[in-house]
Design goal:
Elements lengths: L4 H15 L15 H5 L2 E6 L8 H10 L4 E4 L19 H14 L2 E8 L5 H14 L3 E4 L6 H11 L2 E5 L10 H8 L6 E6 H6 L4 H7 L4 E6 L21 H10 L4 E5 L7 H28 L31
Parallel strand pairs: 1-2, 1-8, 2-3, 3-4, 4-5, 5-6, 6-7, 7-8
Helix pairs in contact: 3-4, 5-6, 9-10, 10-11
Length: 329
């Protein structure tokens, strides 16, 4: 028996070696993204400003790592470690080509650009639209002078590009959705709102009530959840804050909105933090689709698709914040 013991031990060790996973063969799960959201017409991406401390190329890679396929470019970000030029409509043809190649290689589409100025001079404004058309941009996010909107609206229709009016906190020009609605009155439907839900909360407004006011005029989102609805509130993972992120999504779904949501995280974060936002968004989209399907089967949904009652919003409890709030952009 003693003579056999070394043999038995050797066999056992060999079995463990053979069955152990080779570290080189271990693969992380493929990025999940937000397929349930895509199925109901919600395209989740990120505002590159979230990654303002790195280059645009690095931002694109980080967005792709989250399983997302859309980016909103902002003016002024360094293009890459090797390209010192900044992202904007004045990039040279050579830099523009490299940006387009990077996006294609990463599988990320540039869908929105902003927040950027739109000049009152039509020729100067036209140049921005021409560049946006070349880049495949669907929406320019801006805070233009109301008197310039009729001219801008003509360019929107000519180029087939939207202009989404962004709201910064009170007392910026468009902090109140009533002002946005007044500015859009009588204009092409290609002019509407870029709804920044966090800035509404920072302005003392109820984001869900703001969404209701803007029904039919929302073009895109800077979607946020804050730890508290006040000026100093900072970003937290969606569904853990005080903005009722689930309730907002239920209202957006009830309006039949289809379009782009940009994650714009202005507080400290890591990959896991943003992944939580993506997961929450996808899970809520799946729940909302399921409720709509069940209501349709039972005849409970009306002709507009609005559900009664809507999905009950549930929120996790956010941990106490450890960092100071970032200054909102």
């Amino acid at each position: 028996m003693n003579k056999l013991l070394p043999v038995v031990v050797a066999i056992a060790l060999a079995a463990q070696i053979c069955t152990a996973a080779d570290p080189a063969e271990k693969k992380s799960p493929a990025p999940k993204g937000a397929p349930a959201a895509e199925a109901i017409g919600w395209r989740l991406g990120a505002q590159a400003y979230t990654f303002r401390r790195v280059t645009f190329f690095e931002a694109v890679d980080k967005i792709a790592a989250l399983g997302l396929k859309y980016v909103e470019m902002y003016p002024g970000q360094r293009v890459s470690k090797d390209i010192s030029a900044k992202t904007n409509n004045k990039m040279s043809p050579e830099v523009t080509a490299k940006v387009q190649a990077k996006l294609k290689a990463a599988g990320v589409k540039l869908v929105c650009y902003g927040v950027t100025g739109l000049p009152g001079n039509e020729d100067a404004c036209r140049k921005i639209f021409q560049w946006a058309k070349k880049m495949g941009i669907e929406t320019i996010v801006s805070e233009p002078n109301p008197k310039d909107l009729p001219m801008i609206g003509k360019l929107c229709d000519e180029f087939g590009i939207n202009v989404a009016i962004h709201n910064h906190p009170k007392a910026s020009r468009y902090w109140n959705p009533d002002t946005v609605l007044a500015a859009c009155k009588g204009l092409t439907k290609r002019i509407g709102a870029c709804a920044d839900t966090g800035h509404w909360a920072r302005s003392g407004l109820d984001p869900i009530e703001c969404l209701k006011k803007l029904k039919g005029r929302i073009i895109s989102f800077h979607f946020k959840d804050l730890n508290k609805k006040e000026r100093g509130g900072h970003d937290v993972p969606w569904g853990t804050g005080g903005c009722d992120a689930a309730g907002m999504l239920a209202e957006i779904r009830s309006q039949g909105f289809k379009g782009v949501f940009s994650i714009e995280y202005e507080h400290k974060f890591d990959h896991a933090t943003l992944a939580k936002c993506v997961s929450f968004f996808n899970e809520q989209a799946a729940k909302l689709a399921k409720v709509a399907s069940a209501a349709k089967d039972t005849g409970a949904a009306g002709p507009t698709g609005r559900l009664s009652p809507p999905l009950k919003a549930t929120r996790a409890v956010a941990p106490a914040p450890k960092e100071k709030a970032a200054k909102p952009r």
